[in-house]
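seq:
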Amino acid sequence: MSLRADFDSIVGFDSAWTDNPKAPGAICVIRVGVDGPHLHLAPRLASFAEALKVIENERKDARKCLVALDQPTIVPNLTGSRPVDKVAGSLISWIGGGVQPASRAKIGMFDDAAPIWTFKQALGAAEDPELARAASSGVFLLEVFPALALAAIERVFCSRLAAPKYNPANLKRFKLSDWQAVVEAAMRFGLSNSLRHMEEWCSVLASHETPRKADQDRLDALICGLIGLHWLVAPRDQSVMIGDLQTGYMISPAIGGIHERLIAAAKLRGVPLS
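struct:
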């Protein structure tokens, strides 16, 4: 019988929310061993099924496997949006971005037949962020939100209407300088958590003069992985959990403390913030 490898695995998965073969999501893998974290699998495009294969390979060997997913994972509300969406939206709208409301009315995304539920069932992960930090083994799922994380890791992005316009599919708003700034911010965030084998990949991505939507998906997958890494290895007070496991939640870095707009919005709506 083979011995379990001496590392933890963090999978960053930008699912793209629907299982459209023409517009798949993207995935990456960060491993954390005795010599620290390194980018084991550089971001690549992946459907839900392909992501499950990657995760299955990781969970076979890793002591602990954490999947950081850029998609709402708990959506009990039939219409409207979740409390956590409203809290996150208070900051995201102020910086000039948007939060897509999650409800079961979103056909193809959160209705009973949506791929996210099949994915979660096949994954069989525990959805308990605090346990994910403390446990020495197991498979865990976290909901993360790259746009919220960017506002926390890069001060330039966190001011009125300063959200980076880095989606190449939105030609009217896209700015190459913002694209480069996001890649550089992600690289610095990774380095702040001692992540190795990432700089070359980020440098190549930043050099693209005409990035495609698929490039953004891969970049967001890396950001998902970095949020998961930060949640596991950084001091707990440098991250925040907004919401709860009943109505929905998000995990985000909070390196400089929890933003006052999030605190005010959470207090107004009675949403847990820790």
